[in-house]
Amino acid sequence: xxxxxxxxxxxxxxxxxxxxxxxxxxxxxxxxxxxxxxxxxxxxxxxxxxxxxxxxxxxxxxxxxxxxxxxxxxxxxxxxxxxxxxxxxxxxxxxxxxxxxxxxxxxxxxxxxxxxxxxxxxxxxxxxxxxxxxxxxxxxxxxxxxxxxxxxxxxxxxxxxxxxxxxxxxxxxxxxxxxxxxxxxxxxxxxxxxxxxxxxxxxxxxxxxxxxxxxxxxxxxxxxxxxxxxxxxxxxxxxxxxxxxxxxxxxxxxxxxxxxxxxxxxxxxxxxxxxxxxxxxxxxxxxxxxxxxxxxxxxxxxxxxxxxxxxxxxxxxxxxxxxxxxxxxxxxxxxxxxxxxxxxxxxxxxxxxxxxxxxxxx
Length: 362
Description:
Layout: E1 6-12, H1 18-21, H2 25-42, E2 49-54, H3 77-88, E3 93-98, H4 107-122, E4 128-131, E5 134-135, H5 145-153, E6 158-166, H6 171-182, E7 187-192, H7 218-227, E8 241-243, E9 249-251, E10 264-266, E11 277-278, E12 284-286, E13 290-294, E14 303-307, E15 316-318, E16 324-326, E17 332-335, E18 346-349, E19 359-361
Helix pairs in contact: 2-3, 6-7
GO molecular function: endo-1,4-beta-xylanase activity
Organism: Streptomyces himalayensis subsp. aureolus
Protein name: Beta-xylanase
């Protein structure tokens, strides 16, 4: 059907078969070479891009190579993998792929950049870099992602967004990422890491473009609009949060902006005090600068608004079953006493899958 196929992945420290894990030194090095030749030879001319090496750098601030059995065969193992791959299929684009390299200021990003620059200077055959782009509260989207893509492209390689998922599926962030790729001529494309939330490796983060029932999420429309050349301003994904049991909305009483104001259920009216935006950091924001905030970590803890400051008590997981779970407490957003009336207060409570703990975003 004329579709291009990406190959993932040829050399990786993880997911190795047992027999390969038992090898070391020159035996392991030769096994890697044989594997690259065998797989690429089998699919020669059919795979447009190969992730030749995956996740070879350590997390954190060191910028070091990951300690793995492949790394212990010698620091040149990545170069050998790319040279082997070029000989095996000269027509395929050869990529290095990794996660947590999207933020331009991070040491891991700079370490991969330095490797690619060195490879290009020395003629090591590398054609592209894949940015996995698993955005979540621990590795949030940053507006400097476009700078990262542009900087790598300036080295003379293509770039690709290879495993995209975004905690909470923020429409704004999905649009931003799509526009970042569109703004860089050498961005080959975007691969989303799954279809429905229920199929995701992080299903609890509801990170994809489709709900578990296959229905489209606001993020789907945001991506489509970006691809179709819509507004350059990412669409707002602010909306109401409606209780399944009550049919009423998460509401800041009397449209208060005072820190510590406990939330309640109230008839949905599209007021600004009922408009919640889920951010890439996992916050639920109202008025733009106030966050859904847990005043404690135990059953019965008050759920309130508070000025956003980045604490884990202000971060939430929006799950596919409709529950909203506090990252710090692990407890669910709960209508007190399973109440459904106007004025019912909101608290944290142990998750029970009750209708007073399930919510929809409208």
